[in-house]
């Protein structure tokens, strides 16, 4: 059992409201939380408890309510967070009710979905919250039963006195528990005593999702609300020259047509009426900046890779000396295109700007940013803005931007009415904030024994910021290493995309290392293990990853896939550390009637303790499918600033038939958990490219794979 | 504007709408049946799948004027208590992640199984290939369809 110190100031009890019960606030403040109300979904908000104020509450009727503060995008946090609390509390999971908390930056420290950061941030905090409540309930039971605390155990929302066979429910104890002082120290469970953590626990919103209840931003409706769509410039670098709004103002159902910034907003009474009017809208645009095309980027990449202005991100040893004495130098370049996020639920937000404040409701990964940017835009204090999160129909980083929320607020302030701004799929795909396009140049210096004595990487990105991760493997394992980054700034907007940068960097790096292993005449897995061994014994420079954990997943994936011992398939390997977790993958390609078929991917993941086995499997499988689909097919191109793909008829997403079998294994090491929303995605492209090389003899240097020479007839199937 | 009597989930709804209004927007904006989702508007993603006389159709391209002639079932009407064998299987297998596409997935799967209670893997692939899931729940969808098939038998 671990003893954990708690900070009493972080745990505040609420004065018991009418009806009694235990409310335990966690970074709690005096403001009332208002659960989101969505359209007809009255059930979710009606409750025996009148005011949900705390993080966790237990009502006298035994209902335990846990607020989940973080936006739910499908990463399963709304199930996972409450599980952690409930496990330490020994709550009856079947009777736990989970509600999405609204934005409250005083109560909750981190209401963001991004960077796979929620679990590492909150693991201990959530456990302490559950354990603190449990402690108080046990103390209350001890008084009531006149038994010492050591004689009491807890299970399924009961405090049990085995000696006498008596037991008291948490509901019965809730009011008394309010009088127990908040402990300064709480005991956390031993791992072996977890009852929920590590199990397959289904999604708490399953019933609502499979019966079609209103859950998402696009489902939000309020009486009197107007619908709007916004015509944004048709190309990056364009501005409105003239807009003829008169014709469509008279169309059926249209309430108003207004322009602001470079937008024309059509406001109406229904989605379809707005869509129809929009087709008649006539806007002329003129350039206000550079109108860039994909061809321009290809030229710019070459310039950046030769430029003298790159920023040095990491330098170990003497790279020039190592390369000048090398027996062999290998230099390769890899390129990736821009990608849209394509959340299944397109961008949308509801805003109501009133005299006394602003109400924002919708799907956001970062509600606090929506608030601060709206406050700044409207010139009002942030406290005047409330933000409620709906469930998100996907995020993938796109909803880390607040543009679509502030735009709704701006429109509401102009038309002085509650309005929901809806993006069509075309708006969503053409409207910007993409995964940036990047080109990398890697060089390796080998000595005459095949040892990698020098390593160079330069990343050149379009609006990519730092396109490298300079402290990642193989940094630490090579004596002479140089990592540089250089960026071109473009009017084409970019933002994080699931596993930012690493979603492509890992493919490039792991493909390159595979090729270097081949040149060094070493097995690709053994080549990496040798490097890791060197990093362990004599690390070079700062180490930001755990070598043993990297070795652990490498060996586990190789073992599960029976690496190197199969005759009927061609195997490709990849291993990557990102967002604090480690994932290795083996991809298997078979030749079926002379054509390569990707049949299976093995994944070995180390995220420490697996909190929810069901959700974790899906995060790994889903991450792999995401990484695979975009590496194979994803491609967004530009002509004079205009996006050339705008819907699923000309932009290819991976489909049902096109996913391989995926086997997932987790390393069992009991380390405190880290996230899984991103880490399984980066290694996939490399494993697949390396397997395709073995099968076809062709290296893949650009994404999408399907467009590369010899790759046009690659199939993916788990059932072939 | 014209008036239409729509047979949806065994109820009759009367709506005033322009004849070209896709059924999707009638369901969502006029009737508050928002379980049917908008994803692409051009019948490419399957998020808007409903049943028209028992067939899986994309409601984003089905004009209300055409829908008025058929018996429509949406996710809200697939079962009274959310216990259609396909829905049960979806919950047991824990299919949804973000969940946005799942109503469409369930409607496609239910239409398949109503005509072919024991589909082969290839038949499942064909029936489900038009429903995109951006989270990548495809393995579990397949698993759930096989489970639902066993429940129907």
TrEMBL record, chain A:
InterPro entries: Ald_Oxase/Xan_DH_a/b, AldOxase/xan_DH_MoCoBD1, AldOxase/xan_DH_MoCoBD2, AldOxase/xan_DH_Mopterin-bd_sf, N-heterocyclic_Hydroxylase, OxRdtase_Mopterin-bd_su_IorB, TAT_signal, TAT_signal_bac_arc
Top-level taxon of origin: Bacteria
Domain Aldehyde oxidase/xanthine dehydrogenase a/b hammerhead: 211-289
SMART domains the UniProt entry points to: Ald_Xan_dh_C
Entry-linked PROSITE patterns: TAT
NCBIfam families named in the record: TAT_signal_seq
Matching PANTHER family: ALDEHYDE DEHYDROGENASE (PTHR47495), BLR6219 PROTEIN (PTHR47495:SF3)
Protein name: Molybdopterin-dependent oxidoreductase
Automatic annotation (TrEMBL), chain B:
Protein name, per record: (2Fe-2S)-binding protein
Top-rank lineage group of the source organism: Bacteria
Signal peptide limits: none
Span of domain 2Fe-2S ferredoxin-type: 2-78
Lineage: Bacteria, Pseudomonadati, Bacteroidota, Cytophagia, Cytophagales
Keyword annotations from UniProtKB, A to Z: 2Fe-2S, Iron, Iron-sulfur, Metal-binding, Oxidoreductase
Pfam families: Fer2, Fer2_2
PANTHER family cross-referenced by the UniProt entry: BLR6218 PROTEIN, OXIDOREDUCTASE WITH IRON-SULFUR SUBUNIT
